[in-house]
Input
Amino acid sequence: MAEGVKIDTVRSYSTGTPGRALNSARHNHFVLDSPSGPNEALTNGEAFLAGVSACGVTLIEKYALEKNVPVTGMQVAIEGIRSNAEPNRFQCINVSFEIRGVSQGQAEELVEVWKSR
Output
């Protein structure tokens, strides 16, 4: 293994229910469903989008803390758009940030930090 790298490992297992997988990351276990069903648990696409939006929250919070930017709260909303004809591909992903405690200019700078990483 190369020095100076971080490796994240997730394992996914069949459950006997078509369209459902049991997933493990470190000591965390969670169920994901295919968008085609059964649609009772978080879907694969929703989990992917949650990872992106959570990255926005955690990266900006940490950066703001390190740079003494007075962020008092944040919400990142993400929307993935797919066609019914090609549900395996996102046509567009829209991300919006609501950052409290800072000016519009500061918020825009913080979002640019996230985009650049």
Remarks:
- The CA atoms of residues 71 and 114 lie 14 Å apart.
- Residues 1-42 form one domain.
- The chain is about 30% helix and 30% strand.
